[in-house]
Design goal:
Mean pLDDT: 90
Number of strands: 0
Order of helices and strands: HHHHHHHHHHHHHHHHHHHHHH
Strand content: under 5%
Shape: globular
């Protein structure tokens, strides 16, 4: 066991070394968002946190994350008081704030490390090491958290802890930790129906008296967590303001950079129909915003197809998750929890409202746990993790980061191939090793999947080199559209594959 811990710590040390090297790299506007949240929570009383508009980067995460920022702000003030200055700190970019915020993300990843350790402590050595590498050294997490800048590793650590307790049959603690996750980041709520059905069936369905007692106990725990998070704002009569900040439905159906999901095809179909009808003489207005910067605004203006509302996307996500909910009710097995949660987040990613491309981490990280369960799961994860990682490339658009993201993806692909090959080596072939001199592996990618992955190389060459050379500044949306559309095919394939796996 000590050796296993040493392996995990070694993986974490390697990941930390890489993260330290990434400190000077590109920072997105999310960096200033979180700096401003440090200033808001440190400089203002709690009653003004969700009302402040000093900066355009207003606080829009649930209260537990605001409390987390408040905690970090005490250390920020010790490092450099200007970091938490609400007025003069706007767009502050001194080395002190850069190093402080980068290091807080690294430090918060200790929770991810703990979650991985707890989830894999009873798993056989090879599988445990493979999960640790896939999660702790995830290229998606490295790009999003330690270049682009966010705290996804910290939040996913809470989720993995919740899953670990559910897999051990300790449902009450697992439900408690998921409630905590929701109060840190509400976008994790996509998996709430899975938790509700599973806990109701597996934990509370135990006779009338015992089941009622457990149901009440679980309800008290969840209510207590939400009361700790939202109670002060309910007391101050501000809960409506908090909710409006957390759910800004006016932002539109799609994010500025389209996540590779179902709505990409819907947008393209609408645009194609509009152009065709105009050619035929129909008076159809083509909304330019849908192809240049994503549908960001107060509406989702489609020219031909029906308008999409948040309620429609909510219904589609729930409908997509429903087979999983039925399965969870009929066969509430702890060993399948990670698979169901990953599937739920895949559904939310594909059909949700204003989905960010970074949300692919919500299902790729749980799928890393599932990947070691069978050969077919490993093959599926190999494809979807590469597609997910590649779909994040447009986030790091500056030239100096190009070698970094390519190298991270290539290394990740190599590690997966070597790891899965080692895990699924044919034992009979090993016995004949002396005769043949070769080690035959069961881990092979099918021709269709292999061709699709090779197509990513073509997409990259065309979108990043050929199109800019041929078109210049015209049709600036084309590279993003090409990447998003091609990756959406892979994510849709993953969704269908996961659905078939759940139903069989």
């Amino acid at each position: 066991m000590d050796g296993d811990r040493r392996h995990l710590l070694w993986f974490f040390a390697v990941a930390t070394a890489v993260k330290l090297l990434l400190i000077p790299s590109y920072r997105s506007t999310d960096f200033e968002v979180h700096r401003n949240w440090l200033a808001i929570t440190h400089s203002l009383p709690l009653s003004r946190w969700y009302f402040d508009e000093t900066s355009q980067w207003t606080l829009d995460y649930p209260p537990f994350f605001a409390y987390f920022e408040r905690f970090l702000s005490f250390f920020a003030r010790l490092v450099d008081p200007k970091i938490v200055d609400l007025q003069s700190g706007i767009d502050y970019s001194a080395d002190s704030v850069i190093y402080f915020q980068r290091i807080t993300v690294m430090a918060s990843d200790l929770l991810l490390l703990f979650g991985v350790w707890r989830l894999t402590r009873k798993v056989e050595s090879l599988k445990r090491n493979l999960i640790c590498v896939l999660v702790v050294l995830s290229p998606g997490l490295l790009m999003v958290d330690h270049v682009h800048f966010q705290y996804n590793g910290f939040l996913l650590g809470w989720l993995l802890l919740s899953v670990s307790f559910l897999q051990e049959g300790r449902d009450l603690i697992g439900g408690f930790l998921f409630a905590v996750v929701l109060c840190f980041k509400h976008l994790f709520a996509v998996a709430a129906p899975v938790y509700f059905v599973y806990l109701l069936r597996h934990y509370c369905w135990a006779g009338l008296a015992s089941g009622l007692r457990r149901l009440v106990g679980l309800g008290v725990v969840v209510v207590a967590v939400f009361a700790a998070a939202f109670g002060p704002f309910i007391y101050n009569g501000q809960i409506q303001q908090v909710i409006s900040r957390m759910f800004p439905f006016g932002r539109g159906l799609c994010h500025a950079y389209w996540a590779p999901n179902f709505w990409v095809f819907y947008i393209i179909l609408d645009k194609g129909l509009a152009f065709s009808l105009r050619k035929l003489g129909f008076d159809v207005q083509v909304p330019s915003a849908s192809f240049t910067g994503g549908l960001v605004g107060d509406s989702s203006p489609f020219a031909v197809l029906p308008q999409i509302t948040p309620l429609i996307t909510f219904a589609m996500v729930l409908l997509a998750i429903s087979p999983c909910l039925i399965k969870a009710w009929r066969r509430p097995q702890p060993g399948l929890v990670a698979r169901w949660i990953a599937y739920a987040y895949t559904c939310g990613f594909l059909f949700g409202w204003h989905v960010h491309e970074k949300a692919s981490l919500h299902f790729t990280i749980p799928l890393a746990i599932v990947a070691v369960q069978s050969l077919e799961d490993a093959k599926h994860y190999f494809l979807v993790s590469i597609v997910s990682c590649y779909s994040l490339f447009p986030l790091l658009y500056e030239p100096q980061e190009y070698p970094i993201k390519v190298l991270l993806l290539l290394l990740h692909s190599m590690v997966m191939w070597l790891g899965f090959t080692a895990q699924y080596t044919d034992q009979k072939a090993l016995k004949k090793k002396e005769e043949s001199g070769e080690r035959k592996s069961k881990f092979e990618i099918g021709c269709v999947e292999k061709s699709y992955l090779m197509g990513l190389v073509v997409v990259e060459v065309v979108s990043q080199f050929l199109l800019p050379y041929l078109l210049g500044d015209r049709f600036a949306f084309m590279p993003l559209m090409l990447i998003s559309t091609y990756c959406a095919v892979g994510i849709m394939y993953s969704w269908i594959w996961q659905l078939r796996r759940i139903l069989t």
